């Protein structure tokens, strides 16, 4: 069973809208080696897992899989910010036939030749479940052979490829919004790569100096370096509400990347940051409410809500103030 | 940010394996109107939501979306049980070249003409991200126009169609494992149908006697009736850990289905049941560990795990005993 | 601009439901060489046609394309009859949990192992836009190079392949409902094959004895023979309401199949037969109206309709009696 | 059975070629909510319709479905004009290796970075059955649950989404060729939206002020306003040759959009405009006839055609002069 | 540049036709982990290879890739034999309307409920480029990151998964035609698995006892054991005509599977067996020649062919007698 | 069985990188009428061929099919050169965060708006198995009806369409690297077109002046003219190592293109040119070896390779010097 808290797993830096960068990031969301894929692959591997004796391996996969849902949420939100509005366009469209001032363009005018036109035409300046050339995500991506060694080997390759692609995307754009999320995912992919490599180590493999793959020198990317200095690539969260995960039996000891760090799995989840709701876009008719409907919406928003008894999670008041992790 | 607890959202009844029923259930998992679709559609609608004033609507969608992940987990696990082994086959395959006793068949022998051969050939007797004719799930299914009214209208139609298909599946099979999950999802789909219909009511629509769609008389299905008697079709959970959801501002008052019930949203989550890990399948080489690897696995399983500090959720000991909801 | 008349282009023989035959016929509807493909291919070729001097060729393609829409209607209706109910099942399902008498099965029970389960699960015992293995029809099938010779060559090959597949389907089933439509389409495909072969003859090709392709000896199929005896394979209709088609400048003279017939294009359309609306299917919740909704429907049906002035087409009264063609 | 007349359902304004606008329009042709989809969806819903008592609903769907074929023809032709030649390029390519004069570019040179390269490479400067990012149209788009209420609800959402996307396309381009067709389809989509909303009204739903969806203020688009002033959004044609359609029993009375108009269904079809055949494109080898083949084509064109007896439709001479509707 | 010799890489055992087994084998041909995939993946990895210093690795991949084309030829031919005719059907169809004798069925009659109907309907009892549930092979399967370590890791996983699936297919059928080819491919996949594992060993990895993956005990399959006894799993051919391959620098020394064998790469190619052309199938109209066309074919076959100068390869006469390898 | 020699079938001219041209060429590699398609189609037609008496036709198809593998290799290598680096960029990326000098851009920076971003993001500046709009190659492209006449007719149309598209690509770009390969393939496609047209001539068809299709006047393209002057469009190779091909019984006599040449099939293969391995791309982490791994690679490269006995093909020493054809 899954739960949610209205916080993003990592903060997103502010910068100009950038539809071309958004499109590149789509590979990290809906591409063959993106977050939707890891999320679904680990979910299926967890459901179909065989071998009660191998529970720590199942828990490792399941915990990473839960984290990937939050990654989908993070990169999706990042993309939606990158396509929200238009570069160098001040102000807000107030009429579908607006003209932009000098130095910019109305968002829908740039849709014809930048990034993916569906961001503006099918979505309302929001993320899509597709890759960077517009192919919809496909269930055929999911790998789940049932053979534990093969599944671990595939997952290792999958995380490494995801990180490889994100390093390439990092080089493609200087947009800070894009880079802040990409950098975070580069480091977390490396943590997952370490997790699967370590799991294979427990089955006898010695990696010698092969890891990390790729040898990206990603520590030269400043946003990445900052996170590596926090050892975020050697840390794994459980995201498990009742403390039943045994992933820590695997994710411990010397990192298979031989970088001098030790793997640590002693936190439930990162603290995250509050998520916010994006503003309206009149040119997209999103949410598209006229004054009459707006009034009805307001009536609902003003209502006094029934009290929910919060069982999993801290008291509501405390949660609003600061949902803490160790 | 998302969290997980090692419990299934609803119990699954015991019965014989049934590959044909499993295949029909695949439509409810990976079909165009199945749980993977609702899960992804509501996740995208939540990430891309516009209009801070409409937060209760976002929270309603987000909460249902979180529930759908647990539905994917439930129906996926159900399918994996339905294809685990073979009908009327006693005992366990101990050799890839085993022959079954009278009255049954080795699982891989039935793979050629029952259900979906991929359940046995690509997966190891487990669920797949495909529909009932083997089409992989596609990102093109996700609808997220950004226009609030259209998104709500689509979601209403989506839940109703999901329920329609599940009612048809119910009639297709008498297998109790299949029917217990199908019945639960029929009732929960109706709750979601009520949620979106109610949201449209707050925008002025009067449904008169149109709902529920379809008029299934599903209350004649005994497993369904039992759940309806508990008003499970008029209840919505938040699955929100910090009590920030405002979905209850919409999901309240008289049910749009005009069945005399009131909509109630005062619980965080159902109690659920513990999830278990399936046994090995030697004929599938899953997990496929020989004695040497088995010994290494055991060493990992025996390890003493590092303590995780549980922030969201009750104390670990209590959780293991009985993760309660109101 | 297109028009419709509520008549089927050819009659459909009565026989038992037959889901396996229905599934085979899906290839003729939604397969790569089926009627949806020819319909769409000729529609695109007509819209994108270049060369005003070549108008007779455009008109030939456009006229056949219009006929193909009626073929989609014919084969779709045939499939819906073949999956309407269940073989050897007397009576009508009156309750979703009905049990059939001896000698038959409730339709939804046979869905698990006969034909395409989507006929019962996604559709309500009706035709689908897919091929015989469940692949959805794809726009990538449409060929329209813009080069007239290539387009004609492709169309010739397309019609011949369609006929080849239909001859194979004919051999696969003895069901009379299936065979009556298949036989009609075999003969019309041959007429279209003759049309494109003749068009290439006007460009200099001599076919010698190569046509028809395949050499099916389909005249041995009794239903086919009957139609060949009427020279239906050497006749082309215009389906053109205002008599502007110049297709007859090509479709005339000796048949390229060298069978002693002459090509004739002097009729607007065949007479056809009235189309009827299928009955309800309670087990599919189709149309799924309860007594309250049924009453509302009846009120609408009873209404006195506004008079429509019929411009294209004969007087309404006459049309109802007998919409004649020469 | 279907018929055709060589007229477009609406006129297309003249303007420069514009490959980027053409590409955006592809969404309206081959996209998930485009005209190929509505055409096919309504064709399947009509063929598979259940419930003789509900004939007016079937006729409503069937009539709109017939109109959609003409919409495919209209938007397809519009796209083919938008990619016919190259902006600011005077004259005509006379040699595949031509160079353009100043101020323009040879069409095939712009293909590499504008719109969809397939318009020039796979097609010969013509429309394609794909969406605006090049995905081929898919049969999986077609929705036909068999449940009347769900099918109507889906159709309402479908037409509204189609209109939403077209409003966005309108804002994306100022090209008059593109806008004239988009404006017409915006208004006709609204008529269809009204049709399905009204059908649901006959089943008891009250829409209050929810319609039209989206609230586009599209009346601010001048080309749209002109058509709204003619009440084209409150009019439905039957396209039925024999006057058997009962759609008018539903499409009558006050518009569900509450705009003060009444729904009227008293015409068979709009008058339309004559369609013309596009010129040659030597750089595409389309139609690609050398002098020898050209001579053979001419011989065919000069032939005296056999007389066709026109049964459905007015006398040929009159039709050529002016195929009228009321 | 590629060359061909009219020999199959391995012999195919004789047995009854078996459409269900044929369908399972399609996974090994056109499935995501089948021979078309390995063939294409290694072809792309070879073309796009970077790093002149790593030539032995390129040559290893290229050599295996060349072998995979012969595997496609082998498994494709095996499938075409398994669907050629019908089980327990004596004699030959001589008329499309033939009836079978007792104890069997005409091939086209079994098409409706066994295996993949396309084998009989789209193909003429021949292999198809699809997987075991009918999904067409897709270019999206090809993995070629450009990072050498990742490509090797993926290839190792790919070969292991291919072998896993073939072991499962082996268990699914007792048909000797199917098993002879499956057994050969199991052993060759293991050789390729060894090749990529060894390549990773040269980069520092120690596999300990992890290989082979899966631990199939496939040596219990008699047809497999026979080939393992010949050390065919520890042998690699170059298929390189000019002796330029440096793959032997990697494929040598102790097998990474730790089975006591040494890897050997000292042969160009296996000897193979002559390939033969299948007989006609009148019921499929394949090749579909009537007496008139047959006579023309015969005239061509009787012609005296021009002499081809054979540069690569032994003298023609010798080759016909016995194209030997060491 | 297939063999390989490390030579390209034709030389590739040097020019600047050109991602837009590379993208256009993808149609010729992975498009519906590209080289992957011809290669696979002829491979399947050869495996599934029926009719021993028609061996010359099988051999013709099989020989062309073998050539197509070399065409895939040629066009794939051409594309990888066109995306290797960046136009007007001097020097070599030495750090993932490099900045380019004036007049150029770092390759990954141009990826966002030129050609197909996957060339840089999923591949490492290399060819992909997709078409020019990014659709992955699909097995559904393969046509193999089993009817000899239809298969030949399709192949004729296929080669002609391939040539038509390549003529259009030629006009789209002036890049010499692109044009040298395109020109070669135009001429070879014409040879294959002649082959299938001639095969149909042996079955009785007279083409008169219809061929070649299209009438491209491609002889005006200088690179094409040079190859036509060598009669390369009237020559066919066998690529058959043991001289068993009987294709020459068909490919002989007057060309069906009526251009005064005679068809000649007296050579085994063209001479080709040596293939080379591309350099590293640090910004792509391809091959991505750090100094430690590089050292291990070098150790492997330095090894003394085991001697391979070359059976098919000339002595190794001679081959290295000059692998000749007549």
UniProtKB/TrEMBL annotation, chains A, B, C, D, E, F:
Record key words, sorted: Calcium, Manganese, Metal-binding
Metal-binding as UniProt keyword: yes
Residues annotated as binding Mn(2+): 35, 68, 71, 159, 192
Cofactor: Ca(2+); Mn(2+)
CDD domains per the UniProt record, alphabetical: Mn_catalase (cd01051)
Keyword Transmembrane helix: no
Listed Gene3D superfamilies: 1.20.1260.10
Pfam annotation, one family: Mn_catalase
Residues noted as binding Ca(2+) in the record, renumbered to the chain: 59
MF annotations from Gene Ontology: metal ion binding
InterPro entries per UniProt: Ferritin-like, Ferritin-like_SF, Mn_catalase, Mn_catalase_dom
Protein name per Swiss-Prot or TrEMBL: Catalase
Family: Belongs to the manganese catalase family.
